[in-house]
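# step 3/5: fold
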Amino acid sequence: MAANTITGSMVALVTPLHEDGAVDYVGLKRLIEWHVAAGTHAIVAVGTTGESATLDYEEHIAVIRATVDLAAGRLPVIAGTGANSTREALALARGAHSAGADAHLSVTPYYNKPTQEGLEQHFRTIADAVDLPMILYNVPGRTAVDMAPETTLSLAQHPRIAGIKEATGSIERMRDLMSRRPEGFAVYSGEDNLGAACMLSGGQGSISVTANAAPALMAKMAEAALAKDVEATDRLDGQLAPLHRELFCQTNPIPVKWALHRMGLIGPTLRLPLTPLAEFCQAGLEQALDEAGCLQPA
C-alpha cells in the first residue's frame, strides 16, 4: 500500500502498559479491535503518543509487529521510526519494514538541532536505504527544529517520501505545502484542532490524538471533510473541539491515557518521566469526554 493512499482519521495510538511498566499486549488488542469496529482509517504505532521515547528498540519493534499482526490487514499500520540519530532512525525503519508496516513516520531529529541540509541528508539516507514509504514529521514544538517548506518540497521529490505530518500549528503552512507539492505527496495534519481545516483544504488526513478517545466521531468527521461536506465537517468537529483542547491540557500522552483509563479501556500507567494527569485538568477532560459521547451512562 502506498502511503499517499492512506487517508482519513489516523489514530496516533497509545501504548498500553501494565502497572510494572511492561507493554500490555492484551490491552493493545482491545484497542485495535475497537478502532477497527469504530471505522478508524489507519493506526500510527509507537509515535510520540505511543511513548516511543521510553520504549527500547526491542519493545519498539515488538509493538509495531504486534500492531501489524493484530490489525491483520483490516487497516493500514504506520510505524513511528523517528530518532535524533540517523543510525538509530535507520535501524527503526528497517525494523518497521521487517515487521510488515505499510509505511513509517519519521520525525525531524530532536535536541541536536540539525541544519536544513542536515535534515535533508538525514531523511534521504533513510529513504535511500529502506524500501518502505516514509512520512516526514515536522513538530518544532517538541524537536526545537523546524523543517522549512523548501526542504520538505525537495524531499518530496524522493520516490519513497510520500507525505508529511505537519504540526507547526499553522494552517497557512499546510496550505502552502499543498499548493506547491508534487503530485501524490500527502499532507497530514498533526494538530487535532486543524485536522478538519487541513482536509477541507486538500490535505489527506489527520494523525490524531483525539481519535484515541472518539474514534467513530473522528472517522465520520474525516470522511465528511475529505468529501468537502463543510456543514457536516463543522458540526462534527464542533462536537470534538472540547476534546481537541482538553487532551492537551498537559503534555501528550498524559491526558489521553487518563481518558482511556476513565473509559475503562486501558490501565493508567505511563513511563517516567511522564507522570499522572494533574487534578486540575481532570474535570475539564471528563466534561469533554462526556460532550463527545465517550462516556457510557451510569
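# step 4/5: annotate
The chain has one domain: 3-229.
# step 5/5: archive (pending)
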